[in-house]
Hints:
Elements: H1 3-14, H2 18-30, H3 35-55, H4 61-87, E1 93-99, H5 107-118, E2 121-125, H6 132-142, E3 146-150, H7 158-169, E4 177-181, H8 187-193, E5 197-198, H9 202-217
Parallel strand pairs: 1-2, 1-3, 3-4, 4-5
Helix pairs in contact: 1-2, 1-3, 2-4, 3-4, 4-5, 5-9, 6-7
The structure holds 5-hydroxybenzimidazolylcobamide.
5-hydroxybenzimidazolylcobamide is lined by residues 44, 47-48, 50-51, 54-55, 61, 64-65, 68, 102-109, 111-112, 148-150, 152-154, 179-184, 199, 201-202, 205.
Amino acid sequence: MPEDAFSAMRQSIIDGAPDTASDLARRALAAGIAPLEAINDGYVPGMQAVGEQFGQGKMFLPDMMASAEAMRAAMAVLDPELKKLGRERPMAGVVVLGTTKGDIHEIGKILVGTLLSAHGFRVHDLGVDVAGEKFAAKARELNADIVGVSALLTTTMRNQKAVIEALQNAGLRPRVKVMVGGAPVTRKWAEEIGADGYARDAMSAVALARNLMEIKAQIPVAEPV
Ligand code: HCB
């Protein structure tokens, strides 16, 4: 894929142009480009540039919303292709995913869910602005192996800890593993709040989830609580 195409994808996000973004995604697939390559080398760098410009006061909220819309349009084309891969694999584990209470950022979480599905995990996405108790209730209902919690704001990061506490209160720890992520989240923060792991991007989240499944396999089997 010519470098120009990735740069056009990046620009379509910066411009907040959903039609261009989805058109470029379709053309990339037709040219045999791996969907993940388009996401990682084209669209995500666009979102990062938007974040930087917003942080510097060069872009405003409506621009950021238009960029998110463009990202969603590209994902709508690429998602089904990624998910197809998952249907050919054995079930790798059950994951409950969501963005913490007070936080409506969802693009990264959706990407994590898509890649987990593409690698055989059964994913239940609770959406955004999700309270700890809701994570715990769904984890219990589905007998989940892993809960993945996303937070994009420094003010909502602490709600990741609330999810761990809710799982504890529901008697689901340590059988349910917790992985955290989101732009302001770090490995150090994950350790501090007692999460089982931190992933900096969607591919690392897949590697981490596989790792957590191996750790879980070493825990003696207990009846679902
Ligand atoms: Co938003 N926003 N935003 N925003 N936003 C950020 C996050 C800032 C950093 C921008 C900035 O100031 N530079 C900033 C946060 C500052 C801070 O807290 N330190 C910010 C702000 C301030 C706000 C508002 C408060 C703005 C306002 O209203 N004044 C407001 C908050 C509303 C709320 O949540 N209550 C707001 C709103 C919005 C939208 C609605 C316009 C839009 C979200 C649309 C949507 O998701 N449907 C938006 C966007 C798009 C962004 C930026 C530009 C991009 C986020 C994104 O999608 N990144 C973001 C800038 C940035 O993050 N650099 C900016 C791309 C994805 C692929 O990356 O990091 O989300 P990701 O996910 C990765 C990774 O972290 C990991 O894997 C993912 C895939 O690779 N991962 C996990 C994520 N979750 C995981 C969970 C796991 O278990 C494991 C791995």
